[in-house]
Design goal:
39% of the residues lie in helices and 22% in strands. It is of the alpha+beta class.
């Protein structure tokens, strides 16, 4: 199952495909008791996708059989233990993908000539992904971080291990003993290689970087430049071969402080926009502004959701059982703003209380 939405992965998902490209969205749960019903709900939604394929006269029998086969393969790959807040299954002739999302999604099935990406985009933006590089004298691990979790990343050269040193009695006799661990040239060379390797990752997938390790290792890595530029140092050893929980606990206080700082900055920018008459609030006003490309900064509370009906020139709250209801209008606004070059920030619940959970700074 996929989780990390890179620019290249998003471009691939948005590529036009032969009809039908099927998108299946299912809300899931990380923990009990909610996750007990997830497998049943998932099978039911996939069955609905098959019924939609059967009922669509534009889908040939050959393509219907092939896409149904891809849906079955996707279903078989899903591991309930890795569930987060939502799943997106994409299937088309000759391919399928399964994505886990840290943000809930509405249950839906969509047939088109490309995959539905707005929920993935919103979930990825809300998650505020980051990297953690954990270093020691002989090992370096890279951790992929997101909402409430880190997992070890196996990409490029990572994880990295320094080759064992061969015993050299003549060298010991010349130097009078072994050099200090972090003064040893082999260690310095290893950490230079670590810096170059994480630089390569950051160029391809840029995001904030936290570096953990003993003080001596952090100092030595700083001397090499590269990965140290803009990184936040966390003086905490033993994490290069530590557990995900230990790594998370080491960086969680810094992440919380950064969340507060970012929320304060957004609030200040929104307040300044009020004085310039560049402020917008509420889902209807933001939807209109997003469609016209006027939004420069969009701020959304993390758990803000609203179900609406598109009445043509404005949005209205949806009533119970309304067949035209749009449950993911917030995700649609997020994706539209990103497509027009806006900055999107998710902030803690309650930050935008006087703006009904969503606000923005307009370009004009």
């Amino acid at each position: 199952m996929e989780h990390d939405l890179s620019p290249s992965a998003l471009a691939g998902l948005r590529r036009p495909r032969p009809y039908p490209a099927v998108s299946v969205l299912v809300p899931t749960h990380r923990r009990e008791p909610g996750n007990a019903q997830d497998p049943v709900r998932l099978r039911n939604v996939v069955a609905e996708a098959r019924r939609r394929l059967e009922a669509d006269p534009a889908v040939t029998r050959e393509r219907r059989t092939e896409v149904a086969h891809q849906l079955d393969r996707a279903l078989a790959e899903i591991d309930p233990a890795e569930a987060e807040e939502g799943l997106a299954i994409f299937a088309a002739p000759g391919e399928h993908q399964v994505w886990t999302l840290a943000r809930t999604v509405p249950e839906r099935v969509v047939l088109g000539d490309t995959f539905l990406t707005r929920n993935l985009v919103a979930a990825h933006t809300a998650e505020r992904p980051f990297w953690v590089l954990s270093v020691a004298a002989d090992r370096a691990a890279l951790w992929n971080g997101g909402t409430g979790r880190v997992v070890e990343e196996h990409t490029g050269a990572f994880p990295m291990t320094r080759p064992p040193e061969e015993f050299d009695p003549e060298r010991l006799e010349r130097t009078g003993g072994s050099p200090s661990t972090f003064r040893d040239e082999r260690t310095r060379r290893f950490l230079r290689d670590v810096g170059a390797a994480v630089d390569h990752v950051l160029r391809a997938r840029p995001r904030p970087l936290y570096v953990t390790g003993p003080e001596a290792a952090l100092s030595l890595l700083a001397e090499t430049g590269g990965a140290d530029r803009g990184a936040v140092h966390v003086p905490h050893g033993g994490l290069a071969d530590g557990t995900p929980e230990a790594v998370w606990q080491a960086v969680a206080p810094l992440l919380a402080a950064e969340t507060r700082r970012a929320a304060d900055a957004v609030a200040a920018e929104l307040e300044a926009a009020r004085g310039r008459r560049e402020f917008a609030a509420g889902v209807d006003e933001l939807w209109q502004s997003a469609r016209s490309g006027r939004v420069r900064l969009l701020a959304v509370e993390e758990d803000y959701r609203v179900t609406v009906v598109d009445a043509g020139d404005h949005l209205e709250p949806a009533g119970p059982g309304d067949l035209d209801a749009c449950e993911d209008i917030v995700d649609e606004i997020v994706e539209r703003c990103l497509e027009t070059g806006a900055e999107v920030r998710f902030v803690p619940d309650g930050t935008l209380r006087d703006a009904d959970g969503i606000a923005g700074v307009l370009r004009y």
